[in-house]
Amino acid sequence: MEPIYLDHAATTPIHSDVQAKMTDVMQHHFGNPSSIHRYGRDGRKLLDESRTTAAKALNAPFSSIIFTSGGTEANNLAIFGTAHAYRAQGNHIITTTIEHHAVLHPCEQLEAAGFEVTYLPVDQSGQVRVQDVQAALRDDTILVTIMAVNNETGVVQPIQEISDVLTDHQAVFHTDAVQMFGVMPIDVTELGVDLLTASSHKIYGPKGVGLLYKRDDIHLEQQLLGGEQERKWRPGTENTLAIAGFNQAIQTLQANREKRHEHYQALQDRLILELEKQGIEFSVNGDLTQRVPNIINLSFPKTEVEMFLTNLDLAGIAVSSGSACTAGSIDPSHVLKAMYGEKDARLTNSIRFSFGIDNTEDDMQIVAEKIKPIIERLEKVVT
């Protein structure tokens, strides 16, 4: 049996179109975009084309796109940059308990530096409540940072509704849209955000490149000092090779988004159907309707996650228990803990399946068939 990769929320393989583009850039376009000679102008052209593509994908101005080394750097620039730039207007920040650690850890660092941070809870649906955001707002709130789609459960957060609450407030609104960018169309004006993070390697582009959308009237304190690149917001010679790959990944995504969305939904539906056919006991973690189709988090009673993952890997199935950034941790998922409490069994028996463009419905049948005997063995061990 060919291995089946179902961990696309962690990372995606590089698309063939992206490989072809990056190969061409490696062979023919090496110039530094800051150089004024023809090789530099060639590099600048690649950079400008990529910025144009990203801006159009978000319905944003050309000047609002800042290329970074990935989602983590973009989140850090948004959070630290906003907090320090607007500290004269307040020192209160609002986020949620289910954010990616690229948001939670910067917020914790700011707490240590004297900022006040409110961590909003979620209910068992995995969604933050808009009324909780409104209740937490203070006159000195300067930043609200809430993810668009949770990377462990696939649950969509009410970003536009939260934006409406912030319309007449001074707070800058940032969203980590890394898991939204590859699945749902994004219009930053309709969404109502001031800052937005996206990443290349979640949409079949190369690792090590991402972007931060920054509304033009929002100021950030620089986190890196150096040259004039990225209008000083992110100095350092641009990685034109990776950015060109990101550009191609966005173009391919834009041309196929609806087909991908339908494909992911068909895979999710088929997996659920096949698990039910096998008589496997399971439940879905998080809201059943407000979710993206490419991520589903399932609880399998009477199993233990580490043994389950190991057995699945031995069977040729690659899945995860949550964020790849904490894969080596023995601690339960902070997302599921926020949803269900610290002692709930779902913290230790839940698996994330995340689908990709190369997965098939037949794969879903094979996965369910492989899971059946594994669960039967594990239930005997656990009980």
Name the assembly state. Answer: single chain
Largest sheet, spatial ordering of strands: 2-8-7-6-5-3-4
CATH evolutionary superfamily of the largest domain: Type I PLP-dependent aspartate aminotransferase-like (Major domain)
Structural class: alpha/beta
GO molecular function, one term: cysteine desulfurase activity
Cofactor: pyridoxal 5'-phosphate
Domain Aminotransferase class V: 4-366
InterPro entries: Aminotrans_V_dom, Aminotrans_V_PyrdxlP_BS, Cysteine_dSase, PyrdxlP-dep_Trfase, PyrdxlP-dep_Trfase_major, PyrdxlP-dep_Trfase_small
Characterise the protein shown here.
The chain has helices at 16-28, 38-58, 71-85, 101-112, 130-136, 159-165, 188-191, 240-277, 305-314, 334-340, 361-382, and strands spanning 4-5, 65-68, 92-96, 116-120, 141-145, 172-176, 195-199, 210-214, 283-284, 295-299, 317-318, 350-354. It is of the alpha/beta class. It has 2 domains: 4-12 and 257-382, Aspartate Aminotransferase, domain 1 (Alpha-Beta Complex); 16-251, Aspartate Aminotransferase, domain 2. The strands form 3 sheets. Strands 2-8-7-6-5-3-4 form a 7-stranded mixed beta sheet, sandwiched between helices. Strands 9-10-12 form a 3-stranded antiparallel beta sheet, with no helix packed on it. A two-stranded parallel ribbon has the order 1-11. Helix 3 runs parallel beside helix 4. The chain is globular and about 65 Å long. It starts with a strand and ends with a helix. The mean pLDDT is 95. Residues 4-366 form the Aminotransferase class V domain. Its cofactor is pyridoxal 5'-phosphate. GO terms for molecular function: cysteine desulfurase activity. InterPro entries: Aminotrans_V_dom (IPR000192), Aminotrans_V_PyrdxlP_BS (IPR020578), Cysteine_dSase (IPR016454), PyrdxlP-dep_Trfase (IPR015424), PyrdxlP-dep_Trfase_major (IPR015421), PyrdxlP-dep_Trfase_small (IPR015422).
